[in-house]
Specification:
The protein is mostly helical. It has 16 helices and 2 strands. It has helices at 2-15, 24-42, 52-62, 64-73, 83-108, 113-120, 124-134, 141-158, 168-190, 196-205, 207-217, 226-251, 256-263, 267-276, 284-300, 311-317, and strands at residues 16-17, 22-23. It has a two-stranded antiparallel sheet with strand order 1-2. The termini are far apart.
């Protein structure tokens, strides 16, 4: 009896956060949003001390603690026949690493953090377009609106007389947008074959060999300060914490259609940091571009609801089919 009451208390506690003020999945979603928002600006501090490849290699060390925790959580998910999903997840992680290197390189060139973060946050545009082209999915009306908002944001970020579609910020940001969007697509397909926990673990596991290769190729400075070590480790920790927090949000009842767009709004954390801490200034047109980019992230993440299963087929399909929440990216 006491065990049953205790089990119910635990279940109730998992559903709620902050002493019942808000659902636990909402708390974990906010943690993911905050973690990615901090991650997005941390690399600016490493720009002068390390190259883009060095930042990626050093940050890998910071995610090892959370990678170990995910390994424990996903240990029961390994099963025969899941290798396709594992391979896709690891491919997604590898592509994300390349996107991260490109992203760190953009910030290292002196582009505005507020602009780069807001632009690259629109990577779901590539994921959605790949799903339409390869998987035959259809854009709903909200996603079509998101597509239009993405194009409007890119145009606004160029600014009046800013060189059309070939401004430096836009061109440089296209590389991480493309790579992160491709990674999102690979993760989307991977979760059709393995559970989200295993997909996230394999996704982050791919960072290790990539980090080792980059570390071997990198020309490291003779002496690195404690600040550089701290920033590099924090870079990896907050990136991994964002992914782990999204898993926790899904596990505690968060719907993918809500969690994914909310966590994708991490520029609402990064942009104020860029303005208040880094001293960046945002003009009216650029501000409108940021708003369009944020709105496009929400719109592009709004997938059409699944077709309901008829009552006479529900009994047959129950137990063999389950909704799998999409694995988190990265900033993505």
């Amino acid at each position: 009896m006491h065990r049953r009451q205790g089990h119910r208390a635990v279940e109730c506690g998992e559903r709620l956060g902050l002493d019942g003020v808000m659902p636990a999945w909402w708390v974990w979603t906010c943690i993911a949003l905050g973690s990615w928002g901090i991650w997005a600006v941390l690399s600016r501090g490493l720009g002068e001390a390390l190259s883009a490849g060095g930042s990626q290699a050093l940050s890998t060390l910071g995610m090892l603690p959370l990678l170990g925790a995910l390994a424990v959580r996903s240990r029961g998910a390994w099963r025969k026949g899941a290798w396709r999903g594992i391979g896709l997840a690891m491919a997604g992680g590898t592509v994300t690493c390349l996107g991260n290197v490109a992203y760190y390189g953009v910030l290292g060139r002196g582009e505005k953090v507020a602009t780069v973060v807001s632009l690259t946050a629109m990577y779901p545009l590539v994921t959605v377009l790949l799903a339409v082209w390869i998987l035959g999915e259809r854009l709903n009306r909200v996603q079509c609106l998101g597509l239009g908002l993405s194009l409007a944001a890119i145009w606004l970020f160029n600014g009046p007389g800013g060189g059309g579609w070939l401004s430096s910020a836009v061109v440089l940001a296209l590389v991480p947008i493309a790579l992160w969007g491709m990674s999102g697509f690979l993760q989307k397909v991977a979760t059709r074959h393995v559970v989200a926990e295993l997909a996230a673990f394999c996704y982050l596991l791919a960072y290790v060999p990539v980090g080792m290769v980059l570390a071997w190729r990198e020309s490291w400075p003779e002496a690195m300060t404690g600040e550089v070590w701290g920033l590099g480790l924090a870079l990896g920790f907050f990136l991994a914490l964002g992914n782990a927090s999204m898993l926790a949000a899904y596990a505690r009842g968060g719907k993918a259609a809500v969690v994914a767009p909310l966590s994708g709004l991490y520029p609402v954390v990064s942009v104020p940091i860029a303005v208040l801490v880094l001293g960046e200034r945002i003009g009216v047109v650029e501000g409108l571009g940021i708003l369009c980019a944020l709105a496009s992230v929400v719109a592009l993440s709004r997938e059409s609801p699944a077709v309901p299963i008829p009552a006479d087929q529900d009994a047959v399909s129950r137990g063999s089919c389950a909704e799998t929440a999409p694995s988190p990216r990265d900033p993505a």
